[in-house]
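Weekly modeling sync, notes
Attendees: S.R. (lead), two postdocs, one rotation student

Agenda item 3: backlog of single-chain predictions. S.R. asked that every request posted to the team notebook include the full sequence so nobody has to chase files. The rotation student volunteered to paste the first one in as an example of the format we agreed on. Action items at the bottom.

Example entry:
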Amino acid sequence: MTSHDIHAALGVFHRAIAEETGPQKPWQALQALAQQIVGAKLFTVTTVDLDAEVARRLYTNMPEAYPVSGTKPITVDPWFEQVVIGKQLFVANTLEAIAGHFPDWELIGSLGCRSCINMPVFVRGKVLGTVNMLDVESHFTPDRVALVDHLRIPAIAAFLAAR
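Predicted structure, as returned to the notebook:
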């Protein structure tokens, strides 16, 4: 993807969140941007509520498998320490690596996903949530992982626009 392509995709995203209304529009715009820049079979956005100790799904492109109403208790584990506390990307490029961190790995595999990247979204040191992209095995190459940086500011904008 060229810098011109990225710039054009960011322009489409900006117009979408600036002009569209509706609670899902910012997430749909972010998903479209992520699809163009990185690609993802499964795309979800999760908020992290540290006070209530739960993570809540805000958006999904596969509501049958991952409904928006879904919540799960926060577990302080190596993934949580890396992504939420450390504010670092988590990348797994095999189903075996996913299975080591996610109890729903069989569902993930049944959807044809065998790799994932979880991007924390944070402002002023506070984690708002994560953007989660899953695809086929070895999809998240070093080049694609580098491209994920182009999604950081748009993800913050989407969280703000969805309020």
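Discussion: group reviewed the output briefly. The longest strand covers residues 126-135.
Action items: rotation student to repeat for the remaining queue; S.R. to check formatting next week.
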